[in-house]
Amino acid sequence: MPHALTLNAGSSSLKFALFELGDLSGAPAVRITGLIERIGGSSHMRAQRADGTTISDAPLPPEEAADHETALGRALDLIGQERPDARVVGVGHRVVHGGPDHAVPIVLNAEALEKLRALEPLAPLHQPHNLSGVRAALAAFPEAVQVACFDTAFHRHHPWVNDTFALPRGYYDKGVRRYGFHGLSYDYISGRLAEIAPHLHAGRVVVAHLGNGASMCGMIGGRSIASSMGFSALDGLPMGTRSGQLDPGVVLYLMSQEGMGADEIADLLYKRSGLLGLSGLSNDMRKLEEAGTDAAREAIAYFVFRVRRELGGLAAALGGIDALVFCGGIGEHSVHVRQKVCEGMGWIGLELDEARNMRGETVVSTDLSRIRVLVIPTDEEIVIARAVRDMLARRG
Ligand SMILES: Nc1ncnc2c1ncn2[C@@H]1O[C@H](COP(=O)(O)OP(=O)(O)O)[C@@H](O)[C@H]1O
Ligand SMILES: CC(=O)OP(=O)(O)O
Ligand SMILES: [Mg+2]
Fold first, then answer.
1. Does ipTM come in above 0.90?
2. What phi-psi label fits residue 17: left (phi over 0), alpha (psi between -120 and 50 degrees) or beta?
3. Which residues line ligand 2 (CB under 6 A)?
4. What is the pLDDT of residues 114-141, one digit of tens each?
5. Domains of the chain, start order
6. How many CA atoms, within 13 angstroms, populate the side-chain half-sphere of residue 228?
């Protein structure tokens, strides 16, 4: 039976999923989803079947998840045991950075892989791991088609004013642009909105993807107009460990006054800032909500403040707003963050229904709210699986 494997490699995690592809004419059917966390540390593997039953939920011995390659090997063992009949004909990869050229998924070969390697410095928490996943999958499935699905692709058609920085023109030509990320998630949400609320999909929508990485995107008619992330996955909202928007003068200060080099600054901005840096406690929103210390409360308050600012900015960029969608781990699960983001937004026509918010219903705004507020669980994996199916169907 033909199957697609999807891989989404983060800095210390590997998400994987197995989909049955059938005759390539219908929707890929998910069979297994899994996550290996804390690769290189005290690793843990969780995997479940489509019906929600657990296949595995246990620590991994260090030698089985020392790096992404061994972690993938462990995931493949699990898949082989659970689905011995699965023939993997395609592997789909979330690749965070596609640069200026890629607005659609591509088939990976050695040359394409080399070009994507050049983009590693632009997304150091993701791109090197995404590409090591590709190399591991090429070795494990040499016959399968390998498809790269780019986080940047969804934004490639946003208007020039959102694509550029006010630097001398030559930098734009070199690729110093505002790319935008989380495109697989936005693509999924756009498609889901078209199914469940076509009138909203056709209108002006702000999507808040609030996970460990966080960004927001303004869409009209389901297409990206502007987003909070820019040249790298550092810009915009504060994140688990990333600073989000920062005056570039701070970077100059760190270099000239603190004597910090590029690697030290990258480490500070990517790994030691955001919720972790502000709280001094954790990058994890759930832990901060539970901790209730002053510093944890302030970290959450800053996160919420920046989401609200971005919401106002994107609404202005869209010329108004018809719907706000929350997704990502925080957006889907934090009743508190949703409530704080929406508090006192009556002036813009947004009113949250507290009981619906508490229950986490799909629509969490009141019936009288002019702006609909929705919670839609995102699914980057199905977007990748569809891309693999379409690529296979085209190749015949
Ligand atoms: N019930 C919850 N309440 C508050 N925050 C939550 C809850 N569940 C998950 N989160 C937060 O979601 C974030 C992880 O989001 P997720 O989208 O899963 O991350 P990733 O970007 O790694 O895929 C973490 O900060 C986590 O604490
Ligand atoms: C681009 C990005 O921030 O991704 P993630 O949410 O997986 O960290
Ligand atoms: Mg994420």
1. yes
2. beta
3. 10, 96, 126, 151, 181-182, 211-213, 233
4. 999 999 988 888 899 999 889 889 988 9
5. 2-150 (3.30.420.40), 197-375 (3.30.420.40)
6. 31
